Amino acid sequence: MEKIKLQVSENNTNIRLDVFLSSEQLMFSRAQAQKAIKEGRVLVNSKNVKASFHVYTGDFIEIEKIDLVSIDVGPEDIKLDVLFEDMSIIVINKPAGMVVHPASGNYSGTLVNALLFHCKNLSGIGGAVRPGIVHRLDKGTSGVLVVAKNDKAHIGLSKQFEEHSVKRIYSALVYGVMKESTGVINLPIGRHNTDRKKMSTITRKGREAVTHWELLESFDHLSFLRVILETGRTHQVRVHLSTIDHPIVNDLDYGTSKRLKTITDKRLLDVIKGLKRPLLHAGFLEFIHPETNETMKFKVPLTPDFTSVLNILRADK
Q1: Among residues 64, 94, 109, which one ends one of the domains?
Q2: Which pTM was predicted?
Q3: 129 has pLDDT over 70
Q4: Which residues are marked as active site?
Q5: Total of domains in the chain
Q6: Is the pLDDT of residue 24 over 60?
């Protein structure tokens, strides 16, 4: 049986095997990873181990290609904004409001459903629920996302994300006026200790997370930022900016409604209240094509809802 072969990098040393397999890049769920390990379908340095086994830099992981179906996922005729496509990858400009892959409460209308209709083939590494998915954008985040159409491309892209060689630049509108023009947030991120749906910098088992930000424009009580990810943890930008007391505008999970009271312009306040997502946009993505070795760069403009808020702020300014 064909196997997926991986090697543990320095960025993932000394973590549980099931955690490694359910990382941002491999996209197995924790339960799927544990099931595969228990059935002996995962080897570490050619040996069967338990899910709790800790992997270290240089360890070789072999995973049997098996169908890890947990729910039925079918193709759906959903329009996609395709920026690039060949036999190996497809690059999408994801709209805000679209979930990347099926999960509890979102079994249809996802990017995966749309991709299954659009593409004849997708990488099988993520299992039946997350085929081809190498990285994610939150439901409310718009912007550029790359998907693997075969396993070789998936492994190649995953390695780049794991080694932090992929360049990702976001735009964010946050509450508060930044005191500095640039900054770095270096705080580990893990599951929230009490709310398992959220992430936090105050956690028992945080993983390295580094976010760079640059102030582009200042307004009354708001700041427009360019954000560059050095790592790629779940909800990283949202958690980090909230941690330094500059939550993203309309982030209902990591912000607070009290910040709305700082907005005195009624027209601006009405527009913000009408937003359906946090003002976070993944506008730039750069990576090496996993098969041609060509440098790929993609840039997409801000969405109309984001631009409308900025236009009001600039007009008032």
Answers
A1: 64
A2: 0.80
A3: no
A4: 138
A5: 3
A6: no
